[in-house]
Write the structure tokens for this entry.
Amino acid sequence: MLETVLGSARFFRRTGPHPLALVASTARGVADERELLLEGLAPLQAAGPTQVSFLDNRRYASALDQTSAGAVLVHPDMVSRVPAATVAIQTSEPYAAWARVAALFYPVPPPRPGVHPSAIIADGAQIDPSTEVGPLCVIGTGAEIGPGCRIGPCAVIGSGVTVGRDCRIGANVSLSYAVLGARVYVYPGARIGQEGFASTSNGFLSIPQLGRVILEDDVEVGANSTIDRGSSRDTVIGAGSRLDNLVQIGHNVSLGRCCVVVAQVGISGSTVLEDFVRVGGQAAMAGHLRIGRGSEIGAQAGVISDLAPGAKVLGSPAQSIKTFFRQIATLKRIAARDP
């Protein structure tokens, strides 16, 4: 029989029950004092009296009206709609609060220190005793792996690679010519450190790629994504940035802090994204561009020129959102007149 509960015990280890006061403080929210033990999480429609839920999108306010949850994370503006039997945990950021509470009930399992007997560890590799190295891993000469890491099955850590503390390297990942900061998560199948090539009048030319890939603290690289190492300087993914699955980052690319790059995006060599840039799915960028701080690039956009800070673009070639939708509206009017 299939389980329908959130956080199936088959896959997730749950802690608790936790008192309301602890849940509220973990959420960084405020709640009335009440003796209440909370046992887990559930969506508004399914939550019971011992479960926590949340509302972040006002479109689902009707579900809040009818919820039976023991406690709910809500913005102060929505407290009046919380049923009398449900405790409102007030927070200005309900979704972020939900993430913190979910981590309270379902913390990431700690690594199990030790090296699996089937792993191949080269002479000169340094692995902190608190790190877990899974089956069939290969760790190259001179590699350094910090404390608290988990290296998944069949991962390959190349010679000289350094991995900071509390990193998670997924199954079948390959890391080469790379330096990872703390708390980096590389999801299964990602390839870090490949070389690029040059185009000449006679074809393509393989040239020494002498840069590295730098993944700063708290970076996440999605499954089956690829990041080329630099040719003349390092490829850098800035602290806190998140790459979705199936992203391609060319050599010498530099991402600032807390950028978000969604699935199937391609960024050509030597392009720079400043801090807090957001890139929608399947967008593409030409090489040697500068994308200003806080820019937003819509899905499937084709960016062929620099963007000023705060720019919001759509289309291919990419243009301002206002211009793009004005053109769409004009085309619709022309099509409506066409017999």
